[in-house]
Amino acid sequence: MTYYEKIILEFDGASRHNPHGPAGCGFILYEMDSHGAKSDMIDDGNDYLGYNISNNQAEYQGLINGLKCIADYYSCDRLYIRGDSEIVINQINQDYAVRSPNIIPYYNEAVDELDGLEIEFYRAQHIPRNKNWEADELANRAIDE
Question: Which domains are assigned to the chain?
Answer without folding.
Answer: 2-144 (3.30.420.10)
